[in-house]
Input
Amino acid sequence: MTPGRTASALVIDDEAPARDELSYLLRTAFSVAPVDAAQNSSDAFRYLQERSYDVVFLDVRMPALNGIELGNVLCRFAAPPAIVFVTAFEEYAVRAFEIGACDYLLKPVSRARLSTALGRALGRSPDHPDSPDDDPFATIAVEIAGRTRFIPREQVRWVEAEGDYVRLHTTDGSAYLLRMPISHLEERWSAYGFIRIHRGFLVQVKHITEFSVTNGVHAVTVAGQSLPVSRRHVREVRDRILRAGRRGLHVRD
Output
């Protein structure tokens, strides 16, 4: 979004009271303009043919295309808008984040929560345009026995690839399976201390306690677990490890 330009939004919700309330809040509390409102996917596509939007607010349960299906279509646009889901149902959060949603709001939406969502969608805080944005990948939504749990990034020690899924290994010894390519997390978490050590592993450097080479095989130790380091990643990993070694990390040849 160009600095100084007013953000534009499209609100899509089949329930008029919820649609009107969110539209009013966006216009009055955050000076978003224009704010257009659609009651279903057909109306939404008519608006989308006429103009592009910075952010689209989507309900999940709607007639015809539901919010998840519509979100999948929006993600394929040449210049896709940021997507924020607004719903009364928790159980769709994992699928929403899988398609790249910036945020997932539960009704009724508070002004404070909407402010955070707008900041994530627009890359800034709406109330303080020059302040840094909250990171939408600071937490990851995982589904456990029909319930959604949000795992903070700082609690993840390492990530293990399992086909089209990843398994998050956390500081409390738990492991959570999530449908997401490991490259997706590598791209978003590399600035927060995570490093790719192998095609199957992404590791938080601060949790590495040892770097070792045994019979030409490189490995790092995290929470007592030995993880392989592939040849293509050895140099980068070793450089990071050596820098960390000055803070007490053990390097063993």
